[in-house]
Amino acid sequence: MRKQRTDLRVLLLAFVAFLSWGLVSPAVAVASEPKAPHTFVALRAVDRSIIQEMRYFTPHNFVGEPIDGYQEPLCILTRAAADALHEVQVQMLSTGYSLKVYDCYRPQRAVNHFVRWAEDLADDTMKGEFYPRVDKSRLFTDGYIAEKSGHSRGSTMDLTIVKLPAKRTRPYVPGEPLVPCYEPHGTRFPDNSVDMGTGFDCFDTLAHTLDPRITGVQLENRLRLKDAMEAAGFRNLPEEWWHFTLNNEPYPDTYFNFPIARASLS
Asked: Exactly one of 33, 129, 230, 240 is catalytic; which is it?
């Protein structure tokens, strides 16, 4: 009888260990993910009125699938960048507009995903919308893809302006016919943004902020965004009208890799 009890106890302990392994391992994996410094925040904690359309959480991007590290459709920034962006939003709201962010902090694993995609020249699923006039073999040479991104430092964001009241942007349907990102505002993929001359993430020289072919209302809209952002301490990337970085960014030389999720924040 004593031997039977011992054997039963051994079996029970083995069974508990098996269950524990199955239940604890995922938690250990989650716990092993890098965390954001306490100086990072969710943008909504600073300004809930800024519209968020986090493109890389969805398949509507130049890769054509959700990007590594985007576990939630969440804008995360350094507190300094979020506070400065709030200043811009206050000014925008006073004139009947709102900011809309497409991307904020971007983990290094997402950048690595971009690099792997760019090296696969056979994958041109989204060429028809995002880079119709650029040969994919030139994406590195022309500077559209790089192994490091300022977004990974936490104080860079991609954004636009929306006229209030904001209309709803319809969901992208994978496999739908693609329209070049430089087509007229009413022809390319519908976005509730004001007309900026191209869509977001358009790999084309027409997306250069001050391209001389951009005139009239399109130029006015680009300058409205650029001037407001610069007044709050941001600088624009001349090749992308949507791309801005805080001048006094807290981590100018650090590229983070924590996933985009509420669990990453303190």
From this structure: 240
